[in-house]
Specification:
- It is built from six helices and 89 strands.
- By secondary structure, the chain is mostly beta strands.
- The strands form 21 sheets. Strands 49, 50, 51, 52, 53 and 54 form a six-stranded antiparallel sheet that branches.
- It is flat.
- About 14% of the residues have low confidence.
Length: 1274
């Protein structure tokens, strides 16, 4: 292929295969064919440099920085480094110059110059090592030693780019890894990691009789191929990592004199004693010094980290973790987990050994603080403070020692401790002083305590229902209150009041009794009053475990022992938005009785809801954009809203949103109506709205769609499973969300915003009383305490030194596994430019993430979902974008993208979890927008095969005539049309399913409900492609293709009208009749254990209610490929030939397909725009060997041009003329295993008269193991 397509890469999200620190604050990363330079101090990307065209077909997999002192002094403005870049079979030598700011000395710019370029080598370069040609020379290294994948070596003079020496090792084998040690050619040692599970140590200048390099020592012990070897700084040890999931440390000493016996009889005994065996070749064989176990998958690399902090080693693995090891003991010091899903490929440490950087297969780069490693992992009581109870001066001698029974932090420097004898004392952390402030024998056996967040009020409850309110600071006298029921107080939760003079106390008891709300007033007056203000509940069969109160918005959210959530509207008990309490009833026994407005069951399965955090209305969100459901608390559609987070003992962290409009509230139903005996799969009981969906069970990524009642709506917007243990606490500080939990008898603090573990404490587990508190998001001022051995064990963190880096996440994650689908998404137009739409790119794949990008391919936001194979776009009635995503486990969902506000770039608030995007032609505009992605609805599972995957989806807006209801929109010719109607639309969604079914759903916006409208098993095999299309505004057609290589044409217009099959099947009637069946049916067949359901049974169930699911057979079928159709695109345009035209209602349709057979096919049809009209074949074209492997995507640009891409990493432009496909030009893409791509016109200067105008510019997104954005100038 001689013609090169004019394609320019505009962005790349790809695995980070190489990392290298140039200085303590400058990190260089290799990503595909490019280099990126980061300033770790500022946490910013300074420069990206493309190494094209030299690396057009290569990817950077390693750096070797010349060990010579950088050019210039430390005070120089531009220190320079000589770097060898290894990229497959290619080698580049570059000069990297760092431009420093004269004032701040921070990195301002990077200049990269190519100093030597080499022709591609015949074998993969496994190692490049800088050496001096002679020991006597005082110059910097001037030669480069290259070790190749066939275990051969070449020495090159860099100045002249000539080969000085080459040799083949005597062990002719394949290498996956190699390293060199030595400063000059005279002391060079090579370590080769072979596929035969051995490490070979050899000298390229010590030859055997055949002239090959002689192996001097074999390191034997691994049980799998070796992926990396590394020398220690002094060269005396070697670390190797392998397929066997271990890291092994070896001695590189060649002193084997003690292991060379003269008699064969003494060989075995000598080997047993020394570990060295003398073989006939004179080689030595040695076992490892250490074997480190801990990784759960293959280990990719390891790095010695020798410093004043100890002898350590870092290893990175396929399991997504980076482990730090103490080589003096063999213990794992830390397990850093911050990369998405799988594979951490690269690791490096800065020169001072204080920062560790890791690069993942997900495209993320993380920084880890090695100085704080000891403080982050607490193992022994020596790292804790043991606090006993202070003895009262007049205490009587007792056989039972007085020990702490309960405690609670008062502020950052003090804790209140309650002893087994009822003594209340204050312990000062900074001084170790302890003083008793109160004593009450009623609290000596059982006590629970709580302190208000401002530390002004402390409360205690005992086993008989007695409450004690006291001041930790002595501002008022203590007050005793008897709870209405003399029962055990199980939990107390304290909240600050609207003013510093009041506080609120919520009291739980050990049964299903209601939560009692007490108001504490007069804190600063010296005499407080405690009044029973309100009663929340009760709700039958609901044991309440957690609670959160928002006085400003008048909402209380409660979690229960069996994973349910209850929402209470407490605005009636609050007189103003400032949070002042209404006047309570005169009788203390008659408080406000408030029933829940919403009850949502099984939010956390059947495990307890342990923590609820209501996000303040003014809370700033972090700048990593992960919380894209953020937004204004007021919306025109829903009225007021709030967001809250929950954790549970199922290990899940979830985000929710509550919306309400109190002006339209209906009369609240009694609590009995919410507590009926219903299935645990129900979200809200019989009182829920008709469109309340059934939660999918058994998945870590389950999403409850929506629950609505009495003007209140509760929806779950995100959830993720963080641990196999318990999650117990949520803390938000400066927009950063911290999660506390327990796993394997350890307390863990996880930064959910930055996605990494911050602290790990060996405490024995979460069954004992504990508390965690921090003053900052970096845990520089944090406390953790728990009871053990008759003491309060206290872990105190007080860091005075700032971290060496600003942000631990240097580069955001992309996807950790294959990307299966990518789509350009058009958002509503700017208010100032009604004709211009903003554009995002959404990608999804096997890791179950929907990821949003700007046009530069920089990751912006993620949403958790099941494994995703397909995405389709539509438009809601109010102009917002709807996405239909589908994938594993027949998971079909609808998402709503809401654009909250527009503004100039300089005024955009990046602390609201926004997706920053650029509009205008080619994405070059400077306006920014904020987008929220909301989970709207989920389709029920209907397949009879549990493992069914949806392989493709296509959607289109139905017209009012097609829906058979006035709720539809006016006629629309495409799915991207918009409407200003306030009523909801209905959308048709076609799905290609792996169980051989083509299924068609109808989605109703108003009810947020999917209804199965039809299905067909015509293909008989896995269906891979579907495409919905409307012709002439009246004919609705569907194209489908599968692994049978056939393309089928379906006319849905006839079926939509209620004709063409048995039963009444208009869209409106299908919606009405399926809604009447309710949640007893999954699809149309009851899901009961042992039911041998079949497709015939589904049809029978539908017939029983007057419906038919059978789509029948397609109107036309064409055999296009010998095997599966991997890609399909349908384009309408061009003029019909007169001989095939039945009138002016005919249109030409081009159907382009790409297959597993490497072929590209185009079918040209003449299709009538009238329902049931004729379809004729105008011609077809086939290129049987369009690519070297299976096609991953195809796009018809116009009547004469189309693009295709494949696993062979080629993007090819084709010309279609006279039913022949001819090659025009091609370009290489850097994404391996291409599986999807999408195309939009950035500049469409072509006209109808000149459809092939050369000024057309296309924007492309190509996805596989990564994502690349390109602009193609035609």
């Amino acid at each position: 292929m001689t013609n090169k397509l004019n394609a320019t890469s505009t962005g790349l999200a790809f695995q980070v295969a190489a990392l290298s620190f140039l200085t303590e604050s400058v990190l260089m990363a290799g990503i595909g064919p490019s280099l990126r330079f980061f300033d770790t101090t500022r946490g910013s990307l300074v420069k990206q440099v493309s190494l094209l065209p030299e690396l057009e077909w290569g990817r950077v997999h390693g750096f070797r920085v010349c060990p010579a002192t950088p050019t210039g002094t430390a005070a120089a403005d531009m220190p320079s480094f000589k770097v060898a870049v290894l990229a497959g079979k290619r080698l580049l030598v570059i000069q990297v110059s760092l431009a420093l700011d004269r004032q701040t000395r921070s990195l301002a710019d990077v200049v990269v110059q190519r100093t030597a370029t080499f022709a591609p080598f015949r074998s993969w370069i496994r190692e490049g090592h800088w050496v001096k040609q002679s020991e006597s020379t005082s110059t910097e290294p001037d030669a480069l030693v290259l070790v190749f994948g066939h275990n051969s070596v070449q020495v090159w003079d860099i100045a002249t780019a000539t080969a000085l020496y080459s040799v083949q090792c005597s062990e002719r084998c394949m290498l996956y890894s190699a390293r060199c040690f030595g400063t000059h050619l005279g002391n060079l040692v090579i370590a080769s990691g072979t596929v035969f599970r051995q490490v070979l140590l050899w000298d390229p200048y010590t030859l055997d009789s055949a002239g090959d390099g002689r192996v001097q020592k074999r390191l034997v012990g691994h049980e799998g191929v070796l992926f990396s070897v590394r020398f220690s700084a002094d060269g005396k040890r070697l670390a190797s990592v392998s397929d066997d999931r271990t890291v092994r440390i070896w001695s590189t000493s060649l002193d084997g004199s003690a292991a060379k016996p003269t008699a064969a009889a003494s060989l075995a005994s000598t080997a047993a004693k020394t570990g060295y065996i003398d073989v006939s070749s004179g080689e030595l064989m040695a076992p490892p010094l250490q074997t480190l176990h801990g990784h759960s998958a293959r280990v990719w690399d390891a790095l010695f980290i020798e410093s004043d902090h100890g002898d350590r080693l870092a290893s990175v693995s396929e399991d997504g973790s980076c482990r730090m090891w103490d080589l003096s003991t063999g213990d794992c010091l830390a397990c850093f987990e911050g990369h998405m899903v799988r594979n951490v490929w690269s690791v490096d440490a800065d020169p001072s050994r204080s920062i560790l950087a890791t690069g993942g297969g997900d495209g993320g780069i993380r920084l880890w603080d090695l100085k704080a490693l000891r403080d982050n992992r607490i193992e022994s009581p020596d790292q804790m403070i043991g606090v006993s109870c202070v003895q009262e001066q007049d205490a009587q001698p007792s056989n039972h020692p007085e020990i702490p029974k309960s405690f609670c932090f008062v502020d950052a420097d003090s804790a209140m401790i309650v002893s087994t004898k009822g003594a209340f004392s204050i312990y000062r952390i900074s001084t170790g002083d302890q003083s008793i402030i109160h004593h009450d024998p009623h609290f000596q056996h059982y006590t629970v305590v709580a302190v208000s967040p401002n530390g002004l009020v402390a409360m205690a409850g005992n086993i008989s229902g007695k409450l004690l309110v006291l001041s930790p600071t002595g501002q008022f006298a203590h007050v005793e209150v008897q709870h209405p029921k003399t029962e055990t107080i199980s939990e107390l939760v304290a909240f600050n009041g609207a003013s510093p003079d009041e506080a609120h106390l919520l009291v739980f008891t050990q049964d299903t009794s209601p939560i009692m709300w007490y108001a504490v007033k007069g804190i600063h007056s010296g005499h407080v009053t405690v009044q029973l203000h309100a009663q929340l509940g009760p709700v039958a069969n609901m044991y309440m475990t957690s609670i959160s109160l928002d006085l400003e918005r008048g909402v209380v959210i409660v979690g229960t022992r069996r994973g349910a959530l209850m929402v209470f509207d407490v605005s009636s008990a609050i007189t103003s938005v400032a949070g002042s309490l209404s006047q309570p009833p005169a009788c203390v026994d008659a408080p406000y009785v408030i029933d829940p407005v919403l009850v949502c069951r099984t939010v956390h399965g059947k495990e307890p809801v342990t923590s609820i955090f209501i996000k303040p209305s003014t809370a700033a969100m972090p700048s990593d954009h992960n919380d894209s459901d953020s937004g204004p608390q007021q919306t025109a559609q829903y009225g007021k809203s709030l967001q809250f987070y929950t954790t549970g003992r199922d290990g899940v962290f979830a985000k929710h949103m509550v919306r309400w409009d109190r002006s339209t509230l209906a009369t609240q139903a009694s609590s009995e109506s919410l507590a009926d005996n219903q299935d645990d799969e129900s979200l809200g009981g019989q009182a829920a709205a008709p469109h309340a969906m059934v939660a999918t069970r058994g998945l870590s990524t389950v999403m409850t769609v929506e629950l609505a009642r009495n003007g209140w709506t509760l929806e779950r917007t995100h959830q993720t499973r963080l641990t196999r243990g318990w999650l117990e606490q949520i803390v938000m500080i400066n927009g950063t969300v911290l999660i506390g939990g327990f796993y394997d008898k350890r307390f863990l603090v996880y930064n959910e915003t930055k996605k990494y573990e911050m602290m790990s404490i060996s405490c024995g587990g979460g069954h004992r009383r504990w508390q965690f508190a921090t003053q900052d998001e970096s845990l520089k001022h944090a406390n953790f305490a728990f009871l053990r051995g008759g003491k309060m064990m206290l872990v105190v963190r007080r860091e005075t030194n700032a971290h060496a880096f600003k942000e631990p996440k240097l580069q955001d994650n992309y996807h950790g596994r294959e990307t299966r689908v990518v789509r350009f998404v058009h958002l509503p137009a700017r208010p100032s430019t009604a004709s211009t739409h903003a554009r995002l790119v959404v990608s999804a794949g096997e890791d179950g993430q929907l990821t949003f990008h700007k046009s530069s391919a920089a990751s912006a936001s993620r949403r958790q979902d099941g494994a995703v194979r397909a995405i389709s776009q539509s438009v809601s009635a109010d102009g917002h974008t709807l996405l239909f995503s589908a994938g594993a486990r027949e998971d079909l969902r609808c998402w709503r993208l809401e654009t909250d506000a527009w503004g100039p770039a300089e005024s955009a608030d990046k602390n609201h979890g926004s997706v920053d995007g650029s509009g205008g032609s080619g994405g070059s505009g400077k306006e920014q927008f904020h987008v929220r992605c909301l989970d709207v609805a989920s389709a029920q599972r209907v397949s009879l095969v549990a493992e069914t995957r949806i392989m493709a989806v296509s959607s289109i807006v139905l017209t009012a005539e097609e829906t058979g209801s006035s709720s539809g929109t006016s006629s629309s010719s495409s799915s991207s049309s918009s409407s200003s109607s306030s009523s909801g639309r209905r959308h048709m969604v076609a799905a290609a399913c792996s169980d051989s079914a083509v299924r068609v759903w109808v989605f109703d916006e108003t009810e947020a409900r999917f209804v199965l409208w039809g299905q067909s098993f015509f293909h008989g095999r896995c269906v891979l492609q579907v495409k919905l299309l409307r012709l002439g505004g009246s004919r609705l057609v569907l194209y489908s293709a599968g692994t049978d290589g056939r393309v089928a044409f379906w006319d849905l217009s006839v079926l939509v009208s209620g004709q063409g099959r048995a039963g009444s099947n208009t869209v409106q009637e299908a919606m009405d009749k399926t809604a009447a069946m309710g949640k007893r049916f999954i699809g149309l067949v009851p899901r009961r254990r042992g039911t041998a359901a079949t497709a015939a049974a589904q049809e029978a169930a539908a017939t029983a209610v007057g419906l038919s699911l059978d789509l029948g057979t397609p109107m036309h079928v064409w055999k296009q490929h010998q095997s599966g159709v991997k890609a399909m695109d349908v384009w309408v345009g061009g003029a019909c030939l007169a001989t095939h035209t039945a009138g002016s209602d005919m249109q030409v349709v081009h159907v382009a397909t790409g297959g597993d057979d490497n072929a590209l096919a185009v079918l040209r049809l003449s299709v009538s725009t009238q329902p049931g009209g004729p379809v004729a074949v105008l011609g077809s074209a086939l290129e049987p060997s369009a690519h070297a492997s299976a096609l991953g995507g195809v796009a018809v640009l116009d009547a004469q041009r189309l693009l295709s891409t494949s696993v062979d990493q080629r993007l090819i432009l084709w010309r279609h003329e006279s039913d022949r496909l001819s090659f025009v030009s091609a370009a290489a893409v850097h994404v391996p295993d291409v599986g999807a791509f999408d195309v939009v016109r950035s500049t469409a200067s072509s006209t109808a008269a000149s459809p092939t105008a050369s000024s057309t510019v296309l924007s492309l997104a190509v996805a596989g193991f990564g994502l690349q954005m390109l602009e193609v100038d035609l």
